[in-house]
Amino acid sequence: MLYFTSFVNILGGLALFLFGVDQSSRFFRENMSANARNSMARFTKKKAQAFLLGVVLSALTQSSTIATSFAVGFVDVGMLSFAGSLIVMMGASLGGTFVSFLLSLNLFDYAPLMFGVSYFLCKSRNKWVSSGFGVLRCLALIFLGMQVLGLGTKTLFADPEFSRLMTRWASDALVMGIIAFIGSGVLQSSSAIMALGIALAASNALPATSALPIALGAHIGSTTMVVLAGMSGSLSAQRLGYATFFFKLLGGLIFLCFLPFVHRTFVSLGISAAQELVYGQVLIATFNILVFLPFPQFLTWIGVRLVSGSGSLSEPRYIDEKILDVPELAVMLLSKEMGRLSNYMEAYLQMLLEPQQRNGALFGKLPRAIADLCESCQEFAYHIRVPAEEEKVSEDFTIISYTMSILRGMSKLLTGSIRSHLESTAVHDALRALLGNGVWERWCKLSRKCMRSALCAFVIGEKGQVHALESQEAELAGLSNQIRREVGESTSYDRNASRAVRLVSLMQGFLAMAKEVAEGEEFTKKQARYSTGRAFSEWKEGAVSGD
Which residue, among 282, 291, 181, has the nearest Cα to 225 in the 3D structure? Predict the structure, then answer.
């Protein structure tokens, strides 16, 4: 019965500890103000500020996943280089040691009082009071978890036989390091492993020789959180995840060479096992940063080499649900993804109009990719919630939502009716024979030019393209009317004649929607700051590999 009660306390304490860590992350996301978001964006301009941003994000939320989300988001909208995002993650590795430092202060006896006071005061109408005590409530939950965890370990290790058995087992430094590595990955929290280690040390069940291996194992194991978060994310998230893994792995292996010396130094200073565990974690993180801080380009090279950019055309590259809590960044990323969608549509229309441009595999994949990417963008837009006080972001989101609805209509028309009319090369030959080679080529060329001008105005924000589009559209309308008139006056009105008239009308409707997208002046200004366009020939080379 004693063992059962002790294990229940250990399990419950660990769960309460992890719940407190999770609440810290949730509280930060839900209560972050617009000013705080803007400040974070400004903090990415310099290396030292990017590092400090990572420290603050990780210390406040106890989550490297949040730091990853912000870093990737800033990279994708062009506010931060990929090397800069690695600086943020280096800061996050140091900020993650903050909770371990707090645990070493042994304030657990005050946890019930802290929780009671913060629970009531966080309901205050004063924003500063509620935010401050909201943070305190999250810390109190972590301390309560440690208190219950400590109660379980002390009761369990009060049994001399069990204590002797566990102490013998815990004295194997290699085994403890491996367990810490695996446990950190399974629990998705290096802080939880540190909490267990501190609880064992407080019960005199952790030999000092195992303290540093546990800290090192938890340090390296914590990278699995970043890698797993990146695997289901964008290209930048995947690269950042693997680069961070190698940053901690290589740094940890280098530190391993100095581990005996560091342990002897701690022993000579009279530091306890619990203190060696905490100070060791801080030292490992600091050492790791000092080794690789001058070489972010090397880590960038590793990330790019491991994730080359191949992947599904349908997979979103920029939008990520983790960034929905930052509306301004979410809107920027959605605009980037919509620009990518427009590139797909331009490429597919050109392939439809010019059969010689078709790449077999790519031509077959694009319709599904356009439909899937359009659906992903639409769903992401549905989940963006912009606070009423953020008027500029709200205005941009209104424009981008309207534009997204038009792009959705364009994608359905392009991959549906227009595709059915132009997919077969036999149809091209029949229409060329009906209209004459000169008229058909001129109509195809004008249609491509209209689409190119519309999407250049949309993606790049070139206002001059809107004026060019107007003259091109007028010329195309005149040619379309000529085609209708000549086909109508023809003595034989057959299936091909009907198809030609229908195709002309479909294309005019499609390009009218494209013009409506191009004329979104406020949106094009937004895009001019955050997006860049690509010519079809440049895009095609990368698209074959999914880039």
Answer: 181
